[in-house]
């Protein structure tokens, strides 16, 4: 009989933190389905730059939500939420474990908070009208406009993050509600602060537990720098060249164009920068992305920090936490 009280592990965290290796080890040990929560691993042919699991790793552990889109296709948070929940319910129906792994915070929030993202999909007409209305606004002026509408959301965003500031204004315009008040994070009645329960849908609620590998900042940044050099040795520049060609042809989707590891090489391809500069830019962009990821997850209450210096100990920590959560859920 399907057990909907099962607590589903989510392994997330900053880039280069080792979350994928941990999720692979967990999935292999428990014969679990590994559901990717990475907004760029959905794209075919973007393998090295997205640190996608190798063909050998994929042969050992079944992966889902990777290689499902072409580069000219967009893939939204709404689509991920629907696809991931469908896969989770299917796994539960056949009593198969699953684990979610990825660093795309919006994807994970969509599952954990179970927000109705369908109602928040971008409206092209409203977006165009807002872009036109605020075109002459500086970043600070646009942020001030958001602060008038939703002070809490404004405080969570940097004024220079113009895209997200405008998106928050768009949500307020579409819904007449403050983005910060839409589906606040739900925790279960469990005494474990890491446990979250989604209760928004008509389906049976799902329970999640979030794990995040922990590294000292300097060590993490060194891992990032080394990963970039390894990616270059593996041939990431060929994937970047593919993206550049598609970009020039107008066949690179807005979502795919956001991928770190590819656009940093565009100045080199166009003759506006050196290859050394491109690699340095990629290292810097990756470090900044990791910093944003760390900042985001610090806002979540009670995430379980995982020490990855010993993979067996890390797996034991996850298993003990999940067992504790199972016995404490009401």
Overview of the structural elements:
The protein is α/β, with parallel strands linked by helices and 330 residues long. 48% of the residues lie in helices and 9% in strands. Strands 1, 2, 3, 4, 5, 6 and 7 form a seven-stranded mixed β-sheet that branches. A hairpin with a 7-residue loop joins strand 5 (195-198) and strand 6. Helix 3 packs across helix 4 (105-112), helix 6 runs parallel beside helix 8 and helix 9 (217-234) crosses helix 12 (275-298). The longest helix is centred in the last third of the chain and has 24 residues, at 275-298. 34% of the residues are buried.
Produce the secondary structure layout.
Blueprint: E1 7-11, H1 19-30, E2 33-36, H2 55-60, E3 63-64, H3 77-93, E4 98-101, H4 105-112, H5 124-133, H6 139-149, H7 151-155, H8 162-175, E5 195-198, E6 206-213, H9 217-234, H10 236-248, H11 266-269, H12 275-298, E7 304-306, H13 311-328
In short:
By secondary structure, the protein is of the alpha/beta class.
Sheet bearing the most strands, described?
A: 7 strands, mixed
Total beta strand runs:
7
Oligomer status: single chain
> Can you count the helices?
13
Sheet/helix structural class: alpha/beta
Ranges where pLDDT stays below 50 over 5 or more residues in a row are 184-194
Arithmetic mean pLDDT: 90
Approximately how much helix is present in the residues? 40-55%
Coarse morphology: globular
End-to-end Cα distance? 19 Å
| Proportion of beta-strand residues | 5-15%
